[in-house]
Amino acid sequence: IPTLATPEIDDEGRLTLHGMGEPGATLAIFANGEKLGEVEVGPDGQWTFDAGKLEPGEYLFDIQTLDAAGEKVNEASAPAFTVAESTAITPNCTPYVVKEDDWLSKLALTYLGDVNAYMKIVETTNAMAKQDPSFAVITDPHLIEPGQKLCIPR
Fold it and tell me: Are 15 and 81 in contact (CB under 8 A)?
């Protein structure tokens, strides 16, 4: 039986579904009973499906394993998922996810051309965090962690 991890929505509003299944199996993806498409499970047992942009609302996803004739073999349902109405303000920055060995002055040099401009990244990121909780709140400019989402000013 295939599994569905928590759906993810990117900064542009595109929904990505992913999970596990039997390697090589074909899965049919449904949202509220409507077929969105099919995907093949990779050799590692993982699958990813780009569901595109969905209208705001509540969705129930069903994942069906299909046989060679396209008939349903089994089915898995996931908890309801809500696509929220977009209220985000388009940031005047480039979102950036911190990687190992990143530090603010290095990012300031790379993206702003000035090693001392790191406080602009702190200020812009903290301002965006008030509007969009996916951005980090930087309390100590000398400490950023891999996985934090920053807002690099344009």
Answer: no
| CB neighbour class for 102 (10 Å; exposed up to 12, middle 13-18, buried from 19) | middle
Q: Specify whether the CB–CB gap between 65 and 74 falls below 8 A.
A: yes
What's the rounded Cα separation, in Å, for the pair 39 and 30?
11
> Encoding tokens for residue 24?
């090589």
Residues 120-141 as b or e (16 or more Cβ within 10 Å = b)? bbbebbbbbbeebeebbebeee
Report pTM: 0.54
- CA 97 – CA 30 distance, rounded (Å): 31
**Each residue of 5-28: pLDDT tens digit?**
888 887 677 888 899 999 999 999
